[in-house]
Every structure is written in C-alpha cells, then in structure tokens.
Design a protein that fits this description.
Chain lengths: 460, 460
C-alpha cells in the first residue's frame, strides 16, 4: 500500500469509524452471538491479496454482531474504557510514525514526550514531588502491579534478588477487595499464593482493616517471614472502596515494605481538587498506578505508573546485551524505558495521551469526571428514595453498587434482564456475600437520559 | 470530539501520515538531537483545550527532528519493525471500535478472529498440529518468553508452583547468543541469574553446542537441580544463528524440560517452503514465538505465541474474582484470553494482523520476505568479493554480519560514519569478541539501490 492508496483507504476507514460511533447507540451493548458464531463465518487465509473493502464488509457482517460495544452510552460494566476520538487519532499517529522507543536513541521524542507528560501530571494531580522523573507508561495496571512487586523484592533483598531470586519468606499484603492482579503478580514473581495475605475489610466501607493488617504483619514477622509489599487501593474494583493509605503507609515504613497504591480506576479524579482528599497519604507511596484508559479518555492500553524509586526498578530489570549498547545510554544522560517494563520494545503510546490532554485541556478532563460523578449522585438519590433497591456500599465517585431488598435472585434477574435488553450493560460483585449490581458510570457518551433508562429498567 | 469532527480531523491526520511516509526518505534515519532537546521545546499542560492543528504542528517542529525513522528504507538496525500501511489501518479500526477483549464475552469477535488467524497460520507456516487451539497474540517476544517460563515452572512442579512458588532448584538453559529476554524472564519469575545456564555456541555457526548442553544438564541434575526450560533460537539477534532444535528437543524430552523456540525475527520465513527447513524440529516444541511486528508487516506490537499446552498455561495464570464471572466462561465453551497473558485487559490486536494478511495475501507476504533475502544475498556476494570486509558469521535469511579485516576500530568508525550520514542506520554486535556490523534488511521500502548505497558508504 503506497501513501496515495493509504490516503484513499484511510479516509474510508476514518469515515467507517465516524459512522460507527454515530450509530453505536443503535446496537445492543452486549453481543448476542453464541460461542463459535464468529469463527464459522470467517474465510481461510487467501493466497492473493484483496482491497480493503472485504475487511470493512466483514466488520459489518461478522465483527459488529460479535462485539460488545464498550463505547456505547449504556455501557456500565467493569469500568468503562473510553477510546475518545482524539485519543484514537493520537494512536493512529503513533502507528503511522511506526517508531519503537525501547531506548532513548531509538526515538528520543518517544521517551521525552512521555517523561514530560508524566511529570506534568504529577503537578496537575498534586502527586508527590518524589514521583518527578519516576513516571512511565505501562499497558495495564496488572503489569504495573508486577513491576511494583519486582522492585519491592529487589529492594527488600538488599539487591540480592536479581542474582539469587526469591527465598520463599517474602510476603505480600492485599485486602479482600484488592484487584486480583496483585495476587497474580506475586504468583508470576515466583512467590506462590502462600505468600499473599488477604487482609479483612471493614464490612461497611469495604476498606482495608488497618488493625488487622498490623496484626498480620506482626504474626508474619514473628514467624520469620519478610513483608515485601502492601497494596492499598484508592477505589477498589468491586465497590470503589478507599483504603486508609496514610495509616497503611505508616505500617509499611515501620516494616520496610513497599507501598503500592492502586488507583487504576479512580486515579484521574485527583485532577479535581474536591476529590483529591481521597488520595490522602499517596505522598508516602513507593509507587502508584492510574489507568488513563479507564476514566481519562485515552484508548486502551495506557496505564500511568509512577515510582519514587526508579533507580531500584531499573536495577531490578536492566540487562544490556551487546546489540543494545549505544553512546547515548553510556553517557548516562538519558532514560531507556526498556528497563522500566517487562517487554523490551514499546510503542509511542504517549501520543494518545498527549492528544487527549491537548484536545480537552485539563478543564475538559475535569468536566468529564465531574459529569459522571454528578450522574452517579443522581442515581444514588433515586436508589435512596426507592423501597425496593438499596446501596450495599457507600458510593465512591461514579460507581454505584446496589442490590434489591428482595434477595440475590431478584437482583440477579434484574441484571440479566437489563443486559439481555441491549439498552444497557452492567456487571456484578458480591458485598458481604450479597449479590450486587455495579453501575460504573464512565462512558464518554453517557447522559442523564441513559442513566434514567437504566434505573427504570432495573426497577421494572 | 464528535463523529463529524473526527471525520474532518481524521482525514487531516491520515493525510499527514501519507505525506510523512512519502517523504520519510528525506530525513536522516537516526535522530540527531541531543538529550533534552525535545523536552525543552514542549509546553506545559493547558487548562483549555485546543484544535488538533497544534499537535500536528508540534509533530513537525519537535517530534520529527527527535525521531529515528524506523520506516525509512535505510533502516537496518536491530531488526526492522514494519508498520505497513494496511496494518496501520487495522490498528486504527481497533482503536475506533474501542473494545477490550479480556474475556470472550467482553467482545466475542476479538477472541474468535484471533483464534482463527493463529490457527490458520499454523497451516500456512507448516507448524505442528499440536499448536492448533494454542495460539495467542502477545505484545512482544519478551512477554512470550515469560509465559513460557511460567508455564514450564508450573508443569515442572507437578502443579505446585501456583501455590508454593519456586524452590530455587529450577534451572533455565539458553545459549550465549539467546536473546536477553529469556534471562530476564527467569529473573522476573523469581529464579535469579543463578538459575540461568549460558551454553557455549559453535564458534563458526554461533549455534548452541548440544554436547555442551547435554553435559551441563547432566552436571546440574547431579547437583540436585531441576531443568525447567531450554530456549532454542531460530535466528538469534546477534547473527541470525539457528540452534539445532531437533537435538535440543531430544534432550528436553529426556529431562522433562520445556522447549521454547524463539523465532521472533526469522519466524515469518516459515511461510516460504524453501526456508521452512530452518525450523526443523519445531514440531517438538512446547512453545514458539514469532514477531509479526518485525518481518511480517504488522505495526508494533504484535507477537505470535503458540503453545502445545494451553491448559498448563491457563492453569498457571488463571484467577477469577467475582466481578469477572460470567455465563459464557462458566459454560467452558469459550476461551478467555486474559488467562493467556500477564495483563488483564487486551486490545483487539488481531485486526492489524488480519488487515495485513488480507491486503497482501500469503503470496504478498512471501514476496516481501523473499525480496529481502535476495537483497541480503546480493550484499553477501559483494562482501565476499571485497578485499577489506568479510562476513564474520554465516548469513541467515536477510541478516548479514560483517567486519573489516583492518580491525575493530576500522569497523566501528565505518559504522559511525554511516550512521552520522543520515542515509542509513546499522547497529552492531560482537562475534567471538570481534566488533561487527549487523545489516538487517527488512524495511518494507528498502530496494537494491538503498543496499548498494549502504555498501558503498561502508566501503568508503
């Protein structure tokens, strides 16, 4: 495909996406196909090439019916993942440039734009100055959690981990509501599930019980174990619970454990002064992760990760074969982001974040966040006034978790009816053993009329 | 940005990329900026949003001078990473759809198109039938190597790894020329560098010395260690060496070790019957990785990974919190790719691979590969006829590794002069302690005149 063909076909593809976004509300949110339906309709690989029209035709014929529409205004499942249209174009520019930023020298702008944006966000989100120079983009919060565990293991071993590996006494602390990626990171790091302590949560707030954490740390220390990392969440996946970061930090400092703060979903709210108190204590964190691809308008995948100890992270992960040696690296004047992640190669992901921050401006991103919180407050008020439904955990920001007083089967049946209707899509969790619907308001296109329609559908 | 704004700005962005690709040859391949040059020219984050023109202006003013142009026809560094224009459009469609395919149910087409393409490639590349149903897309070969190590650890422990972690006796075998990502994967997995055996290579072919591997396995077993994984390469990064996969497989089978085959760069050549013999023995591999983003025209990041034991991989990595439970998963009739990777979320990456395979057809991809091999043969013939330069390792496919008979300083000076000229970019390696220039022919736009110009520049 030469540049002129690309220009012609590229315009068609842009038009297809514009049309798709304009009509997305007309699709059922959740795909209705059965397992295997898509595959049965796909042709084998052909010897000869073909024009792009065939692919666009298959998108209509096969892919769209097999798609759960994450950009639909009725998407309230998991956490919505906005692929705002400016971020789509930023990512297109990244593919178009086609650079690979594993080293500073393999494309200086890819590294320096990223450093710049991550440092600027430290200011805009009122994050600690210890994070300046310690920011890097990851694909997901799961990868960020793994990095935190690896850096923590290295530091905790006094630098022996890199050579000797783990010794089996290392221990990681999460709450019963912490995202499963932290337990999985411990498993990947060779610690096994035996190394993970699930600390109980407060039955009302669902936040980590600091007293229980302290007790567990003490008994582990008495048993000769080594506390390596504690993960505190600002906004858990289940209910949006906020762990007491400041008190957890105090315990971490006492026992030499790394404090990783998971604010994957709620993190962007730190841009708004009125929500910033939720992040109290984050200035004592050793690392923090915030997904721009959830609530910050940036197309998946772009997770922000900051650490106050980039030197530890780099020392843990660095490896320098001959074919990657270069003058810039040896000068010590540059950052090579390959040492800050599990993969070696990397896209110029910062472009899609840059596009978002420039198109919307900080005020536009704040307005986006505030609009969703206001919609969640509205839904909360309707639930509170209702005789049938009730909140089962305190609302945090734009996440409302509710259940029917009539019991789990009523709640589940309501959820399944809503999801089958096609107009909205919600997912669930359990709170103190009770089945509950999560309404995560966060799609860019969601307006009051959509939330009202969801509420009416749940109540019916 | 609403769909109509997107249509207008999107056309401008497509045009910008078309123009960039049309003029890419006019840029110096390697960026000439000094560390910090880019950052000094970037503005802070603004409160108010702005039109897209500002970003496009900064691309011209700051990003392009700070870019090493991987799509330049004179790019011979590392391994070229083609972002062919059909794959750019496939990736644009992925961002535009904005789906997240962590579960089958979160977008069935994202999973089923991927399964379909990976199975089809098993046929097209003449890979073992044991890989059918065992294919998955990763971001990079580094992540694929980590998965192989994790699955190997789990299997080797009889399934106890997941609960108990590593015990320190696990041992991983690479050659002195194996990509550093395997050693790094062992480190990430908690084994430490102490667990990695670097087996010597044949001084002429640079391929793993199987006798040395056998001896090392025996002495480790005698010392109570547990061989967990051997990585054999088809096309090493340094010189393109091909390890004796079949003989390595025999040793793996005898000792219960997982055989991971790293064909990150050379893998696509399996599509051509005349190159398929390089992959002899791959039918006995437990896993294989091939980067579509190197020599298969697909924009970074897309690494193909196959395993004959997806059940082991999934058992190693699966974790199921309440909020991810769903009917389709519980039916057992679907694959949830989140259990096949380190991250939880995932893009619909298969779209960019699908675009490539449909636009070029298998015959087009084969022609692309053969053209580069023919250019490398030509360069090889010029080197052989030259009095000053010589090959320092046998040519494999499109990689030519050469050095000047006048010594390392002459070779290095020639490389630095070429790279400073802007017309071409090459990187280096060492072979038996000798400094050597790697000419990795593989950019889509590279023609004979470019290779000739490089050769003349080296000789001058």
């Amino acid at each position: 495909m030469d540049p002129e063909e690309f220009r012609r076909v590229g315009h068609e593809v842009v038009d297809w996406i514009a049309d798709y976004r304009a009509r997305v509300e007309g699709f059922p949110v959740r795909s209705r196909v059965e397992p295997g339906w898509v595959r049965e309709r796909l042709a084998g690989l052909a010897e000869e090439g073909e024009d792009f029209a065939g692919l666009l035709g298959d998108l209509e014929r096969v892919v769209l019916p097999g798609t759960t529409h994450w950009q639909h205004p009725g998407f309230y499942g998991y956490f919505p993942s906005n692929a705002s249209l400016p971020s789509v174009l930023g990512d297109l520019l990244s593919s178009g440039l086609g650079v690979q930023g594993m080293l500073w020298s393999t494309s200086p702008a890819a590294t320096e734009v990223e450093q710049h944006l991550l440092d600027e966000l430290v200011g805009a989100m009122d994050l600690p100055r210890s994070f300046l120079g310690g920011g890097v983009i990851q694909d997901t919060a799961s990868s960020a959690a793994l990095l935190a565990v690896l850096a923590a293991l290295h530091r905790s071993s006094g630098g022996k981990w890199r050579q000797s590996g783990v010794d089996g006494s290392e221990t990681v602390y999460v709450s019963a509501q912490t995202h499963s990626s932290v337990e999985r990171a411990a498993r990947i790091a060779g610690l096994g599930e035996q190394a993970v302590r699930s600390v109980p949560v407060d039955p009302v707030t669902q936040a980590m019980d600091v007293g229980a954490l302290a007790a567990r740390l003490r008994s582990d220390l008495d048993a000769g174990r080594r506390p390596v990392l504690v993960c505190a969440s600002v906004g858990t996946t289940g209910t949006g619970a906020v762990d007491p970061v400041r008190e957890v930090a105090e315990l971490c400092a006492r026992h030499g454990a790394w404090l990783h703060v998971d604010a994957a979903w709620a993190g962007p709210a730190a841009l708004c002064p009125e929500f910033r108190p939720l992040f109290d204590g984050v200035e004592r964190a050793d690392s923090l992760t915030v997904n721009a691809h959830k609530w910050m308008l940036t197309a998946f995948d772009l997770s922000l990760f900051w650490t106050a100890h980039p030197d530890v992270l780099v020392d843990a992960l660095a490896i320098l074969p001959e074919y990657l040696r270069n003058t810039a690296t040896e000068s010590g004047a540059v950052v090579d982001y390959r040492d800050w992640q599990v993969p070696l190669g990397r896209r110029f992901r910062a472009l899609k974040l840059w596009s978002v921050l420039r198109w919307y401006g900080l005020s536009g991103v704040r307005a986006h966040l505030r609009r969703h919180v206001a919609l969640a407050e509205l839904l909360e008020s309707w639930v509170r006034a209702d005789g049938g439904w009730e909140l089962v955990a305190p609302r945090t920001l734009s996440l409302v978790v509710l259940a029917h007083r009539g019991g789990d089967e009523v709640t589940r049946a309501a959820m399944e009816r809503v999801n089958a209707s096609g107009g909205a899509f919600v997912t669930h969790t359990t709170v103190n053993g009770r089945f509950a619907v999560r309404v995560a308001i966060g799609a860019e296109a969601t307006e009051e009329r959509h939330v009202r329609a969801l509420w009416e559908a749940l109540r019916d």
